[in-house]
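Whiteboard transcription, Tuesday session. T.W. wrote the C-alpha cells on the left side:
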C-alpha cells in the first residue's frame, strides 16, 4: 500500500525556529512530525511525504519505501497546490493522510484527517476571527469529506461525532505518545544562570492563549498562603495573550511569576524534575501531553477535570475545576504542603505514562489507513 501524507505542519512552524534552525513544533506540528518519524520505520507500506519546503535536518532520511515530494506554490499550498500534485500522482497513492485539520480540495483516493480537538466550537471567542472561520468552514468540509477521522482522545471523539453528525465508526482514537528527552540530571544553578529561576517554583508548560486558563492560574497562585514559591510559565506566545502577560501585575505577584518563551528540551526536563509540581488548568484540551511529560520526569501533577485531561491523567493526578479559582488555590496549597501525596502521585504517574507511545499512535493510524484500502 502506498500512503500519501500531507507533511506541511511538520516543516512549517507556527512559532518560528529554534537556535539550531529546527521548527518550534506544537500541537498538530508535533503530531505530524512524530507520526512521519514513526512511518519511516514501517517496512510493510510505502510513503510519499508531500512538503512545501525541503525536509528539516531532524526529519527521517529517504529510503526505498519512504520518500519526499517537495514543491512550492505562491499561496494556498494545501488547498490548491497539493490538490494539483495529488491529481498528477493519482495513480501512485492508495490512501491519503492529512495529520492536520485540513484536506486538499481534491484527493484521488480514500482520505483520513487528524483532528486534535474542536475547542473552536466550545470557545469560539478565544480564537482570532480568521482562524475560527478557517476551522469552521475548511475544517468542517475536511471532516465531512474524509473517509475516516483520527483524533487523540475519547473526549474529542465524542465532540466530533456530536458536532458533525458522524457515524461512530468513522472516528477512531489514537492516543499521542511521549518523546524521549534528555534525562541527565542538571543542578538547579543552571536554571538560575540561563533563565533566572531559583528557589521553589510551580511549573506550567503550554502555549500562551486563553484556553490554557493561565490568568485564573495566576489569580489562584496569588492567593496561596506560601509566599516563598514562584510560578514559572514556559511557552510561546500564541494569541490573545496580552491579558495573560498583564495578570501578574494585576494580582500583585509581578515579582513571583516568570514567563519563559524559549526553553531547550534538555532544560525543560530539568524544569520538570525540580518543580514542586506541574499544573495545567486548561478549559479544554484535545489530550494534554505536558501532563504525561511531567509524570515521566517524576513531577506531581494538578490538572483540570474536564475534556480529555482525565484520560491523560488517570488516577495519577490531582484534579481541579478550571473555572473555580478557589478550588485551584486549595489544591495547589494542598500539594505544596503534603509531601506524602506528592510522592504518591509521582509513583502513580510513572505507571500511567507506560500506556502511551508514538509507536502505538502510528500503528493505530496505519490500521485505519489499511482498513480503507481493502
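and on the right, the sequence the group agreed on:
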Amino acid at each position: 500500500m502506498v500512503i500519501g501524507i500531507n507533511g506541511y505542519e511538520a516543516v512549517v512552524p507556527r512559532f518560528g525556529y529554534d537556535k539550531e534552525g529546527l521548527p518550534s513544533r506544537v500541537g498538530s506540528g508535533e503530531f505530524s512530525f512524530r507520526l512521519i518519524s514513526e512511518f519511516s520505520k514501517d517496512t510493510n507500506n510505502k510513503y510519499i511525504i508531500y512538503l512545501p519546503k525541503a525536509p528539516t535536518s531532524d526529519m527521517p532520511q529517504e529510503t526505498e519505501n519512504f520518500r519526499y515530494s517537495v514543491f512550492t506554490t505562491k499561496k494556498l499550498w494545501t488547498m490548491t497546490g497539493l490538490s494539483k500534485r495529488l491529481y498528477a500522482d493519482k495513480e501512485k497513492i492508495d490512501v491519503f493522510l492529512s495529520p492536520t485539520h485540513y484536506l486538499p480540495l481534491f484527493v484521488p483516493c480514500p482520505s483520513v484527517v487528524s483532528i486534535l480537538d474542536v475547542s473552536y466550537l466550545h470557545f469560539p471567542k478565544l480564537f482570532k476571527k480568521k482562524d475560527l472561520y478557517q476551522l469552521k468552514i475548511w475544517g468542517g468540509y475536511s471532516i465531512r469529506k474524509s473517509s475516516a477521522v483520527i483524533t487523540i482522545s475519547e473526549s474529542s471523539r465524542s465532540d466530533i461525532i456530536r458536532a458533525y453528525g458522524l457515524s461512530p465508526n468513522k472516528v477512531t482514537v489514537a492516543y499521542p505518545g511521549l518523546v524521549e528527552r534528555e534525562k541527565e540530571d542538571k543542578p538547579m544553578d543552571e536554571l538560575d544562570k540561563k533563565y533566572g529561576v531559583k528557589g521553589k517554583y510551580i511549573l506550567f508548560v503550554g502555549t500562551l492563549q486563553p484556553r490554557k486558563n493561565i490568568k485564573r492560574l495566576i489569580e489562584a497562585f496569588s492567593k496561596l498562603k506560601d509566599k516563598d514559591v514562584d510560578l514559572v510559565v514556559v511557552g510561546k506566545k500564541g494569541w490573545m495573550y496580552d491579558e495573560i502577560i498583564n495578570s501578574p501585575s494585576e494580582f500583585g505577584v509581578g515579582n513571583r511569576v516568570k514567563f519563559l518563551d524559549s526553553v531547550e528540551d534538555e532544560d525543560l526536563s530539568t524544569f520538570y524534575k525540580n518543580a514542586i509540581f506541574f499544573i495545567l488548568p486548561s478549559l479544554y484540551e484535545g489530550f494534554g501531553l505536558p501532563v504525561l511529560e511531567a509524570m515521566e520526569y517524576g513531577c506531581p501533577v494538578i490538572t483540570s477535570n474536564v475534556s480529555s485531561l482525565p484520560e491523560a491523567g488517570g488516577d495519577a493526578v490531582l484534579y481541579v475545576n478550571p473555572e473555580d479559582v478557589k478550588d485551584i488555590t486549595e489544591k495547589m496549597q494542598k500539594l505544596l504542603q503534603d509531601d506524602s501525596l506528592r510522592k504518591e502521585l509521582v509513583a502513580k504517574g510513572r505507571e500511567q505514562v507506560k500506556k502511551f507511545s508514538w509507536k502505538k499512535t502510528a500503528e493505530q493510524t496505519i490500521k485505519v489507513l489499511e482498513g480503507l484500502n481493502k
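Someone added at the bottom: DSSP finds 15 helices and 13 strands in the chain.
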